[in-house]
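Reopening this one. Same input as before:
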Amino acid sequence: TEAEAQIVEEFQTTLSELGFEIERTGPNRVTAKTVPALLGRVDQGQLLRDLLSELGRYGKTQRSEELRNTLLSTTACHAAVRAKQILSLAEMNALLRTMESTDKSGQCNHGRPTWKQISLAELDKIFLRGR
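Same output, byte for byte:
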């Protein structure tokens, strides 16, 4: 609608922050040049309509915050160090220093632990040392 096209113009920055590059191309027409690839199989047209509806109604949208958090957590997950990935000593140290200065670094965005502390005694038991 013309109102939705107007909302696209008004909220360019918000939409851009969410990974949408959309421009008004007519009185009641918009063209999406870029949508977040991480959305995968989501009905992007319906998602955009929902976002525009909430932006028009509230000026800010809870769905946009949820989407932003989902996109950021998915991006973080895909960029994470994976099992069997070989890191240099410098990379390992940099990762540990970053974790020390990051809130909630003890778990991933899915709630799984990112590290576990094991005492030397426990480690000796695992490898049958001291017997």
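So the earlier flakiness isn't reproducible anymore. For the record, The helical segments are 2-10, 12-17, 44-58, 62-79, 89-100, 120-126.
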